[in-house]
Amino acid sequence: MKRLNWGMIGGGKGSQIGPAHRIAAGLDGHFAFVAGALDADPAAGRAFAQELGVAADRAYGDWREMLEGERGRADKIDLVTVATPNATHYEISKAFLEAGIHVLCEKPMTVTEAEAEDLVLTARRMGCICAVNYGYTGYALVRHMRAMVARGDIGKVRLVVAEFAHGHHANAADADNPRVRWRYDPAQAGVSAQFADCGIHALHMASFVTGQDVARLSSDFASCLPSRVLEDDAMVNFRMDGGAVGRLWTSSVAIGRQHGLTIQVFGETGGLRWAQEQPNQLYYMPLGQRLQVIERGEGNLSPEADRASRVTVGHAEGMPLAFGNIYRDLAESLLARGAGRQPDPAVTLFPTAEDGLRSIAAIHAAVASAKAEGAWVDARPALFR
Ligand code: NAI
């Protein structure tokens, strides 16, 4: 099997999301971790990359050095993951795409809609993949939920209710923690904190599961810690282009809530609900029948769920394995390109720059609506209107 070369920017020692990417990329043996600029501190980044087994000449001090080092190599990286704070995503992703290197960018993909649109167009122009890590869509039962909705198991979707509420930024004494502070600093996070950080996972999942895009929204933002310029709690009502009604709550001050990502979809003939903290069960209620618990790994699930499932029924699979499904889809896409064959159609489920752009437009729409006391606004990106 041909192995692909993989590099990472950000995700340094002690970072939140770096380890999940490294586990996920290494899971199926498709990617070799060969290059990295892992930390804002160049010396710490070089040292940590070598600790993880990256060769000294590819353990870079910063992303520009990495781009220069990699672009000239015959064995240059095929895919780079960008897992730095939000405001840096655009510049880094654009530079690597322009060098012909495929990108998996963390969410939110960019800060402005113009930047997001530019990444969509740059990826198209360069013929490169620019994926966005809405990694929770890699869970087998989220993919099964999507398949059930698409094949009509709950009939026409009436209502989708999404939440992403945690309590990890509720302590006012912790507001200066460097891993918390940047998320509420407009210079580093952009125009929105909690909605851009977590809410958009839930909003994207609502689209992923229903197959509908968000058309309009109305929002209410609050900074429950008064020192924060950006919101730490948001309620967003939305309407989807297929007619579904949407409700979304996101918070970082909900003490006692842990990860808190849940999705519920209610159709004319049934309902579905899934929670990320119990990802191996999906609850299905067909109208007028009894509640069913669908277990990940059991027989007769959809091909999408079977493909995303790795260990046998009854053994819990978790978040790095869901991210692993994004990496597996990317590997299959890249290997197919390299071999001049069509990829397995099932791999088209990974989120793309177009999804990233829809999210950025929704973030800006939500901010505008909150400023206008909840006025309904168009949430579609200009490129897709
Ligand atoms: P963090 O603050 O825990 O870690 C950031 C890491 O990036 C640190 O190691 C830091 O030294 C490094 N870094 C900062 N600037 C850099 C630069 N210019 N070059 C190289 N390294 C740099 O942040 P966290 O939570 O890991 O978030 C990173 C990104 O991942 C954010 O965009 C965030 O929104 C996203 N994220 C996504 C999640 C998901 O579920 N998909 C979950 C958590 C975060």
UniProtKB/TrEMBL annotation:
Residues of the GFO/IDH/MocA-like oxidoreductase domain: 142-272
UniProt cross-references to InterPro entries, sorted A to Z: Gfo/Idh/MocA-like_OxRdtase_N, Gfo/Idh/MocA_oxidoreduct, GFO_IDH_MocA-like_dom, NAD(P)-bd_dom_sf
Entry superkingdom: Bacteria
Domain Gfo/Idh/MocA-like oxidoreductase N-terminal: 4-134
SUPFAM superfamilies in UniProt: Glyceraldehyde-3-phosphate dehydrogenase-like, C-terminal domain, NAD(P)-binding Rossmann-fold domains
PANTHER family membership: CONSERVED EXPRESSED OXIDOREDUCTASE (EUROFUNG), OXIDOREDUCTASE
The protein, known as: Gfo/Idh/MocA family oxidoreductase
